[in-house]
Amino acid sequence: MPNANTDLAACVAEAERHYISARPESRRLNAIAAEAMPGGNTRTILFYTPFPSVLARGSGCRVIDVDGHEYLDFLGEYSAGLYGHDEPRIRRAIEDALADGIVLGGPNRHEIELAYLLKERIPSLELLRFCNSGTEANLFAISAARTFTGRDSVLVFHHAYHGGLSSFGTVGAKINAPFPWLLGSYNEIPSALALIERSAAELAAVLIEPMQGASGCIPANAAFLQALRDSCTRHGIVLIFDEVMTSRCGPGGLQARLGIRPDMTTLGKYLGGGLAFGAFGGRREIMQLFDPSRPDALPHAGTFNNNVLAMAAGVAGLREVFTRSECERLFGLGERLREGVNELAARLGVPIVATGVGSMVGLHFHDGPISSAETFDGLPPEGKDRRGLLKKLFHLDMLEKGVYLSRRGFVSLSLPMRERETETFLTAIEEFIGERRSLLRL
C-alpha cells in the first residue's frame, strides 16, 4: 500500500532545500553555535529543522535575520513580545534606570510602583512578590500552597505547561520538579471533580492555565474553571491560575474577563517590558508566609527579582503603553484574526482550525472542535506523522512569505500591529491553501 505521506514528505524536503539555500549565514552560525552549546541551542523551543534562522534585529512588529530576510513577527516571543521591538516609552524607562545604576543591591522605587500597578489591575493579587520567570513563579506558588495547606500533592492537567520544570505533555518531561503530581483531563468536569474528591486530603493546590498555551492555545471553558473554583473552596485547596500568558487577555487578566477569582496567580512574559520577569501572588494569608519580618518566614531568594531594568520597563509598559483601551483593542484584533482563519478554512473546505483567546492563536491541522490537546492523543502514528509534516511545510511556506511564527503554529500579536498586518497574515494563509490544497488532507 503506498505511503499517504510520500508526496507531502517530498514537498517538505523541497521546501527545506530552498530554506537552506536562502540562509547560508544562519547555517554557518548554527554550525558554530553547536561547538559551544548542545545542538547550537540554549532554549529548546527556538529550535526547528533544518536549523533556525538567526535573527539580527527587530523594529516594531518586524524582525530581520542575518541573511537579510524581513518578516512580520507573528511569534511575538511566545507572548512575551507584547510591546514589539523598540517601544520608545519602554526604551526611555530603561535608559533612565541605567543612568541611575544597574545592580543597586537594595529595594528600589520601581518595584513598589510595579507592585501597585499589578494589584490595581488584578484584584486577586492582595500581596505579590517578583521573580525572574514564569517557571520560578509557578514553583514558588506551589511551594507556598504546600506550606499553607500542610498537604503535598498538586493537581495539573494533561498537556499543561507551567515552565521548564513543570511540563505535562503526552510522555511527560523527565526533568520535572519532583512534586507529587496528579494529572487530570482538561475541560472534563466530571473526571476532574472526581479526582479532587478522591484526593482532597492530600491536595495542596490545583494549578491550571485558563488557556493552555504550549498545547495549542486551547481555552478552558468558564464552567470548567468555575467547577474547579467551587471544589477547591469546599476542600480548602489552593486554586492557582497560571496567567503567565493569559494576563494579556484583559486589563485584569483572563480571570477578570471570566469573573473567576483564584487563590493565587502566577505571571511572567511581557510584564517586564521585554526583560526577564516573573511574579506570583494572591490571598494575603498565603503570601504573608514570605514576610521576612516573621521568624517563621519562607525564604524567597533571587538576585535579580527586583532588578531595576525590568521593574522600570514593567512600570512604563503598564502605566503608559498597555492601557486598558489598548488591551481591549489588541484582544479584539486577535479575536477577528482567529475568526478570519476559521472562516477562510470553512469557505475553502480545508481541515485547519484556529483556537485561542484574544491576541494569542493556535493553528491546527484538524477537522472539528478542539476542547483539549487529548483530542490528538488517540490518533494513529501515521495521522500524527502527517500532521507533523503539514506543520513543518506550513511553517517553511509562511517564512517564505515573510511571516514569522512558531513551528507548532503558535501566533501572538503585538501592540504595534493593526488590521493591515492581520490581513497580510490571512492573505498568506489563503495563498498557502491555494498552493498546497492537494496535500491538505488528514
Beta-strand residue percentage: 15-25%
Structural class by helix and strand composition: alpha/beta
Q: Segments where pLDDT lies below 50 for 5+ residues?
A: none
Q: Strand order of the main beta sheet, please?
A: 4-12-11-10-7-5-6
The gyration radius over C-alpha positions equals: 22 Å
If helices are DSSP runs of H or I spanning 4 or more residues, what is the number of helices? 13
What's the overall average pLDDT, rounded? 96
* Shape assignment: globular
Q: Based on the structure, what is the oligomeric state of the protein chains?
A: single chain
How many beta-strand runs?
Answer: 16
The description of the largest β-sheet is: 7 strands, mixed
SSE pattern, N- to C-terminal: HHEEEHHEHEEHEEEHEHEEHHHEEHEEH
Helix content: 40-55%
Q: Span between N and C termini?
A: 17 Å
Please characterize this protein's 3D structure.
It is a single chain. This protein has helices at 6-21, 24-33, 88-99, 109-121, 134-149, 189-199, 222-235, 253-258, 284-287, 308-321, 324-348, 381-400, 419-436; strands at residues 55-59, 62-65, 70-73, 127-131, 153-157, 181-184, 203-208, 211-212, 218-219, 238-242, 264-268, 278-282, 352-357, 360-365, 403-404, 410-412. The two termini are 17 Å apart. β10, α8 and β11 (264-268) form a beta-alpha-beta unit. The chain contains 13 helices and 16 strands. Strands 4-12-11-10-7-5-6 form a 7-stranded mixed β-sheet, sandwiched between helices. The chain has a 4-stranded mixed β-sheet with strand order 1-2-3-15. By secondary structure, the protein is α/β, with parallel strands linked by helices.
